[in-house]
Sequence to fold (518 residues):
Amino acid sequence: AETLQIVVSSSPVPSHANDKESYLWRSHTGGFGTTLESRGSCKRNQGIENQKKSERKVSSAVSNMSRRYDSRTTIFSPEGRLYQVEYAMEAIGNAGSAIGILAKDGVVLIGEKKVTSKLLQTSTSAEKMYKIDDHVACAVAGIMSDANILINTARVQAQRYTFMYQEPMPVEQLVQSLCDTKQGYTQFGGLRPFGVSFLFAGWDKNHGFQLYMSDPSGNYGGWKAAAVGANNQAAQSILKQDYKDDASREEVVELALKVLSKTMDSTSLTSEKLELAEVFLTPSGSVQYHVHSPESLTKLLVKHGVTQPAAETS
Amino acid sequence: MSIFEYNGSAVVAMGGKNCFAIASDRRLGVQLQTIATDFQRISKIHDRVFIGLSGLATDVQTLYQRLVFRHKLYQLREERDMKPETFASLVSAILYEKRFGPYLCQPVIAGLGEDDKPFICTMDSIGAKELAKDFVVSGTASESLYGACEAMYKPDMEAEELFETISQALLSSVDRDCLSGWGGHVYVVTPTEIKERILKGRMD
Fold:
């Protein structure tokens, strides 16, 4: 509700123009402005300011103006951005990182567990890696509760496809179908987007082993190596240099551990802070999703020499 | 002619000592005409739970596919296999959902529960569960099967003897039923292995 306060006095109306004091008036959208405006004048000023802006060609980050465009998820900003989607990606940038790398004979997913405490009841269920179907698994970065909803959706979608066609859902179609769900939250309903990025790893008979990355906007891409979550840019650039095509699963596991040890914030790498999973084919031809046990992880860490504190990176 | 007798079927399950056996015939017919002699009525849900479905063949297949759907999701969410008792409750619930337009099949569920105790049960087409300790039957040959099993069954049989008993009971019962037969399909499940065998009886 808006209240109108009428003051009868002889003192001048405070305004930003006064040297001694500066005031900011609350505008009807909840932001602040330098003049007291009614809704009508607000709209007029919007038009004028837009014109001025295009003339000045100012590329601002989150300016005062943008406050008008981030309260609703489903509208574009004047610069053509969807702020809510970008804020969602910001949220993911603070979450534990996850890296996925394609090998010649499998896909490796590795995740950094952000929540480690002695008090945490370590159940068998994972924090970063989830199985979607027998032939597809995913790693998660972002808000866990959002991730749970999407993982459940993905599982049901995969089963519905199998029920309809009596064969496993192709990996790209599963990713696409989940991304269509995510996209819906950026275009209608007035609900916020999901604050999760996924790395999907899977196998199907048409395209073999595949790795896909998807983000809150509903965009997805197929990758040879990808990173999401905290420090993902640093991880991505290291991967760009060190990734080799047609590496074996062991070489890829080594690469993944090395990259994570360089980009992780924490001072030392132990098996309780990591989750490592591999998707590969058994000799009998069925797809296997295997999560490494803490003992096996410790052995791998020692083998590849990454248990020492992470080296200082620039 | 009842719709349950359209395709013809015979399914039986027996409990033994820390094992169970489930068997079915292999005929698929369209009333009097036989159109397949290798029809699968028994399917594995996981290593310790099997379901055999008798009745209309299309519902047998569709109901099985729906159960796989539900079980897969259960496995993913709970990260474990379903117990046979739980699975039986699931089947019963799914059948009752279609109370006024039912799936025209009668399931026979057999599994190994906790401590490797065998669990067998059957239900009607709208989900009325019937648990038994000894044997359960269903299909067009069910009356003959009741008689044969009652005569041949003894409690606490080991896997090999159980196989013999269930095979004899099945073959002699389907011989008295024109709509089922053309051989048998027997699974004998112990905590360590699953043995699948095909029987050759009167091929008619």
